[in-house]
């Protein structure tokens, strides 16, 4: 399930942008893709760099504690990666002219891409629905301002349920999710393939032996060889699909990789750095008392608080 991996749901949405124009109050006509770019440019960004950290407004995505990452991007067209290469000798025999243009993929309209990396317990529609409901509750006005420039949004979306269906209909599968919270490496188990290879290998050996004996005109061995070959193919296919199922299984959730835990870690990292600097040269008794006060004040085991708010680069 590529959309879900390591306790995170990786949402990818491609929404077609309206191709008609809208007349402003001053009588000017503007395209919706142009108006959408303007709306996105005015949308507050997270306070995650030294330029924006003191801004008056924060990103509306910071209003809920599910978003690890969220991004809007306007896609006007697909990138042309060049000609599809081939074998020069084969192309010569087939009389293919390398100067003849090949078909090029094009989009019929511009698209709004929405991508999000969120905390989730599974990759089913219930996980997606809980996220779209949270978005609708916390940033409905901003969503309407952005998505009104997209095809059929105003006609279809009225509430939580219709917003979920709209996002679900425009969702595309995330085939390469990104998850980097296994800081010390994933504790993978070695898969012993030897027991799984014994029966297919034995059947293949019987098939080869039967074929060799058939060459010596021994009656009946050709049928044994064919039967063993069929068994080999069947067992091999079963082994192949077992390995595919193993490869497609989502990775386990990394410890403390949910957003509240990550924010708590960032909060403790900053305050503990200040604590270490302030305690340089302190004796054992003073250090012990100071650390006790630090633990009582900042509560390392409580992710609910005190903690760092979402969408900021540093705790207050």
Draw up the topology in text.
Blueprint: E1 4-5, E2 8-16, E3 21-23, E4 29-31, H1 32-42, E5 67-75, H2 88-93, E6 111-119, H3 125-147, H4 153-156, H5 160-170, E7 171-172, H6 194-215, H7 221-248, H8 259-278, H9 284-298
Antiparallel strand pairs: 1-2, 2-6, 2-7, 3-4, 5-6
Explain what the structure shows.
- The chain is an alpha+beta fold and 316 residues long.
- It has 3 domains: 169 residues, no CATH class; 55 residues; 60 residues, no CATH class.
- It contains 9 helices and 7 strands.
- Strands 1, 2, 5, 6 and 7 form a 5-stranded antiparallel β-sheet that branches. It has a two-stranded antiparallel sheet with strand order 3-4.
- A hairpin with a 2-residue loop joins strand 1 and strand 2.
- Helix 8 runs antiparallel to helix 9.
- The chain is flat, with a radius of gyration of 30 Å.
């Amino acid at each position: 399930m590529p959309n879900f991996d390591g306790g995170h749901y990786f949402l990818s949405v491609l929404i077609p942008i309206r191709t008609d124009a809208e007349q402003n109050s001053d009588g000017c006509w503007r395209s919706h893709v142009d108006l959408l770019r303007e709306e996105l440019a005015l949308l507050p960004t997270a306070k995650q760099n030294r330029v924006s950290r003191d801004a008056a407004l924060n990103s509306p995505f910071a209003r809920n504690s599910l978003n690890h990452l969220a991004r809007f991007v306007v896609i006007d067209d697909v990138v042309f990666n060049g000609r599809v290469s081939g074998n020069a000798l084969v192309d010569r025999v087939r009389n293919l002219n390398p100067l003849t243009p090949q078909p090029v993929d094009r989009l019929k309209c511009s698209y709004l891409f929405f991508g999000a990396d969120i905390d989730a317990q599974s990759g089913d529609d219930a996980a997606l629905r809980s996220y779209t409901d949270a978005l609708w509750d916390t940033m409905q006005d901003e969503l309407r301002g952005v998505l009104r420039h997209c095809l059929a949004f105003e006609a279809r979306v009225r509430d939580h349920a219709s917003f979920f269906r709209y996002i679900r209909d425009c969702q595309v599968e995330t085939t390469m999710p990104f998850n980097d919270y296994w800081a010390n490496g994933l504790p993978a188990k070695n898969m012993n393939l030897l027991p799984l290879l014994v029966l297919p290998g034995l059947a293949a050996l019987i098939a080869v032996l039967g074929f060799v004996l058939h060459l010596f005109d021994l009656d009946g061995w050709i049928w044994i060889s064919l039967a063993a070959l069929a068994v080999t193919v069947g067992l091999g296919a079963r082994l192949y699909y077992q390995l595919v199922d193993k490869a497609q299984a989502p990775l386990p959730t990394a410890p403390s990789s949910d957003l509240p835990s990550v924010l708590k870690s960032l909060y403790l990292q900053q305050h503990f750095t200040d604590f270490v600097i302030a305690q340089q040269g302190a004796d054992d008794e003073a250090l012990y008392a100071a650390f006790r006060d630090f633990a009582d004040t900042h509560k390392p085991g409580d992710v609910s608080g005190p903690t760092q708010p979402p969408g900021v680069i540093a705790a207050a």
